[in-house]
Specification:
single chain, about 450 residues, alpha/beta, Rossmann fold, Nucleotidyltransferase, domain 5, 2 domains, seven-stranded mixed sheet, elongated
């Protein structure tokens, strides 16, 4: 069936109104009759946040990567309901991780299709056929990603896939679904999922016909219990799990990375005991850019503690020199270790001109950043390094250093990670005074 769309003009106007900022919408509604205002307030296209409305453009896949509580299920349900109304007699696939998920969340859930559909356009669910049927002939059929072969044969105009990151056999189910999505003028599908770092989710993200919408739990805080928001923030804020499940970030897992996010989270501890030495590692930029500045200390038991990431971005020499001095003063540091590959003696001169009175050790890199980082990563593996708090940008860079390879993390260079490596090399890998010296990497 190739039924054409019937999209009433007032719906387009309503969507345009819904996308306006709240104050502008209020001004537009001044003087609107009460009964019409009530209808507007009950209409999803008016109540939805802009990120919950279909994006413009000629896309095939709308991928919604968002944290828990964002409203992903409601968004998917409302999109399906709108398609069923606009294209009478259309065929829609509803694909969940399991049949129980598809039925319990997508159909019968608190934000599912049955709860979201208006009374005058509510479908009937037929358990024996695993389908929802509307009065205008539109049908939505439930499928499980555990049984991808069930998607062989049927044809669809539209599809909604929920929690793609949790599918047991994602490629088989996805391929069969896409091959059957061939009815109508413009077949499309919506994916709603928390962004777990799977290779298949990444492939869908990067496909040329995909439009990605991102969002967090906090986008929908007005509709969530305040106690829930408070509790999950206290438990998971700044952790990798929180960044993924609450903030909706896609945290890629790099094969062969020297550091893992799980390992970095395990190394976090509040500082205990007295520090016998504190150093500041500095990786200056070549010109204007980010200056990596990391403060670390060593305790009496021979453990290292990463105390602060004081890195500064988009600054000139005077500004980053002042930031180094400030970090050293706050930490009562004993030494500043600074790489001079990008500036030679000029780097030390800049620090001295900025008022530095601390000893400064200049080091010159003779091997690549990853090779320098490998001995430091081994210290983490032995449980000898702790982070006193989460350091998001620093830890993202650490997770982008690949053993035997290069750097694949955020930014052009792992400046923060390099500063950490210099600080920990000084504290943990440099031989004590009186012993034979070694060449600083």
């Amino acid at each position: 069936m190739t039924g054409g769309r019937t999209r009433p003009r007032e719906w387009s106007l309503l969507e345009r109104l819904a996308r306006l900022p709240a104050r502008e919408r209020e001004r537009c509604l001044e003087g609107v009759p009460l009964d019409l205002a009530r209808r507007l307030l009950g209409d999803w296209k008016f109540r939805a946040r802009p990120s919950q409305l279909p994006p413009p453009g000629d896309w095939s896949v709308w991928l919604i990567l968002a944290g828990r509580g964002f409203g992903k299920t409601r968004t998917g349900a409302e999109w399906v309901i709108a398609r069923a109304l606009e294209v009478p007699g259309c065929r829609i696939a509803l694909v969940g991780a399991t049949h129980a998920d598809a039925l319990g969340v997508m159909v019968r859930g608190e934000s599912g299709i049955l709860a979201s559909a208006p009374e005058e356009f509510r479908p009937a669910y037929r358990p024996g056929r695993r389908e929802l049927r509307w009065a205008n002939g539109s049908v939505a059929t439930l499928f499980s990603a555990v049984e991808p072969d069930r998607l062989r044969g049927p044809q669809f105009h539209f599809a909604w896939c929920d929690e793609l990151a949790a599918w047991a056999r994602p490629k088989e189910a996805w391929d069969n679904l896409r091959l059957g999505l061939r009815l109508g003028d413009r077949p499309r599908l919506v994916v709603t999922t928390t962004p777990r770092p799977t290779a298949f989710v990444k492939a869908v993200m990067e496909a040329p016909d995909t439009v990605v919408t991102r969002g967090s739990t906090y986008d929908n805080r007005i509709n969530l219990p305040a106690s829930y928001v408070r509790d999950v923030t206290a438990l998971y804020a700044a952790t990798a799990l929180g960044r993924q499940e609450l903030e909706g970030e896609y945290l890629d897992r790099v094969p062969g990375a020297l550091w893992s996010r799980d390992g970095l989270e395990r190394c976090r501890k509040p500082l205990s005991g007295e520090l016998t030495r504190v150093v500041v590692g500095v990786d200056p930029p070549a010109g204007t850019g980010t200056c990596g500045i990391v403060v670390a200390g060593r305790d009496r038991d021979g453990r290292a503690w990463v105390l602060a990431d004081a890195s500064v971005a988009d600054t000139g020499p005077d500004q980053w020199a002042a930031a180094v001095r400030s970090a050293a003063d706050r930490a009562c540091a004993d030494l500043v270790v600074v790489e001079t590959n990008n500036g030679g003696t000029m780097v030390e001169q800049v620090l001295r001109a900025g008022g530095h009175t601390l000893p400064i050790r200049t080091v010159k890199a003779s091997v690549g950043k990853v090779a320098r980082a490998e001995p430091v990563a081994a210290l983490y593996a032995r449980g000898l390094v702790h982070h006193v708090q989460p350091f998001r940008e620093l830890e993202d860079q650490l997770c982008g250093l690949v053993q035997g390879g290069g750097y694949v993390g955020p930014g052009a260079s792992p400046d923060r990670a390099d500063a950490l490596v210099w600080a920990l090399t000084e504290l943990m890998l440099r031989p004590p005074a009186g012993q034979p010296s070694f060449r600083v990497l």
